[in-house]
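This section describes the prediction task in plain terms. A model, or a person checking by hand, is given the sequence of a single protein chain and must write out its three-dimensional structure as a string of tokens. No templates, partner chains or ligands are provided. The sample shown here is typical of the held-out split.
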Amino acid sequence: GNTPYIDYDIDAIPFYPASYNLPNMITVSSTLQDDTRDLGTNYGKNTVHIYAPGVDILCPFPTKKCDDDTCDTDPSAKHITRGYHLIEGTSIAAPFVTGVAALMLSVNPTLTTSQLKSLILESGDSIPALSNYCSTGKRLNAYNAVKAAAVYFEDFSSYSSLNDWKVFGGGNLS
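The expected answer:
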């Protein structure tokens, strides 16, 4: 949630692209280090899917801005040292979810976007304080998501014999 839509219920006041209801999209908001909701980002019990860390995340920052002494003009970035700032907001929380999706695909490249989304949302940590602010009431858990992806297999009930079953990574069960 960037200005002017900071701390809005995007169920009531849609904010795009976050408010699109697309099957392959995960809408993310950000938490503080103690898993409380970052009040500088939007929320929505029906629109936001999951929370991810989004405050005081160390990131590279354009060194030219540091050299020009203009790096402190961005209110969402705290200067740490030349070329590095602490960043906050959904713009830094969302990449955590994208990175977890990439890690999941690295252990199981057969996952569909629907499966990725479901596993990410189901494997998060339930945070009671977030339950009224997103559909899952959860914060991203990278370990759980990657572990779930590694053991996830499709429904094999339609296969007629063991010869039809494929083992992840190649081969079959016979």
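For orientation: Strands lie at 28-31, 50-53, 57-60, 77-81, 84-87, 125-126, 138-139.
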